[in-house]
Amino acid sequence: MSHEKRALGASEATARTIRFPARLRSRISADAERCGRSFEAQVLAILRRHYGESVDIAPTPSLILALVEASLAGMSESDRGLVTARLEAE
Amino acid sequence: MTASVVVLDSDTLSELSRGNARVRARAAEYLTEHGALTITAISVFERLRGYREAIRNGKPFDEHLSRFQALAATCRVLPVDEVVADHAAILWAALSKRARRALGDILIAATASAFGLPLVTRNQRDFLPMTQIDGVPLTLTDWSR
């Protein structure tokens, strides 16, 4: 039994990088300002309105790594040991 | 070079949380390519119960819990389902009585195997015997070396 295909199925969200030409960037910025949104929020709003799908901004590697480190930050070594204890059969 | 998607075990996640420089560098490289870390529901359970237990005992770890939940929301979290259960049962039956105590490791190895993904672990001693078992194709890799 295996389900390798499901692990990375087509329905999964994919992060992509978009490069905007300067002129388009300016147009989107102007629209974003008029609507009181950030540039990113404006792009998302356009995509959502056009395709009716839920799209979002992928967190950057540095943000993800910061969250990983913040999850144990400032704890004593013994507290870290307690929080990261492994699951063992009784 | 395109590296394959891999699953981090709980120990690797802990090393990353502790700021292990080598593991962090590998993780940064991986995230640049794949956009998210892949972990198992077992690792999420282990960490969440650790926070919950500590908070119940009066430790001020609510913020840490929130940060971990935010982290988990960015990850691909592989579930324990009937295929994983099948692989875990094969592993459990093949392991010694002592090795069977590491129930978390067995479930994590079974998850990686069931999804056909290499497991990132420093713990070669405990996981290596699980790579020798028929019906559970498990491969290991180590980001700390």
Question: Topology of this structure?
Answer:
The complex is a heterodimer of chains A (90) and B (145).
Chain A: H1 4-7, H2 22-35, H3 39-51, H4 61-70, H5 77-83
Helix pairs in contact in A: 2-3
Chain B: E1 7-8, H1 10-17, H2 21-34, E2 38-40, H3 41-56, H4 62-74, E3 76-78, H5 82-94, H6 103-114, E4 119-120, H7 124-127, E5 140-141
Parallel strand pairs in B: 1-4, 2-3, 4-5
Helix pairs in contact in B: 3-4, 5-6
Give a summary of the structure in a few sentences.
Chain A contains five helices and no strands. Chain A is mostly helical. Chain B is mainly alpha-helical and 145 residues long.
What attributes characterize this protein structure?
heterodimer, A: 90 residues, mainly alpha, 5 helices, B: 145 residues, three-stranded parallel beta sheet, two-stranded parallel sheet, 7 helices, 55% helix, globular
Average pLDDT for all residues of chain B: 95
Low-confidence segments of chain B: none
> What is the strand content of chain A?
under 5%
Largest sheet of chain B: 3 strands, parallel
Given the C-alpha coordinates, what overall shape of chain A results? elongated
Order of helices and strands of chain A: HHHHH
User: What is the rounded distance between the termini of chain A?
Assistant: 29 Å
Largest protein interface, residues of each chain: A-B, 35 and 51 residues
Order of strands, widest sheet of chain B: 1-4-5
Proportion in helices of chain A: 40-55%
Main structural class of chain B: mainly alpha
By DSSP (H or I, 4+ residues per run), the number of helices of chain A equals 5
- Structural class category of chain A: mainly alpha
* Amount of beta strand of chain B: 5-15%
**Main sheet of chain A, how many strands, which sense, barrel?**
none
Low-confidence stretches of chain A: 7-11
How many helical stretches of chain B?
7
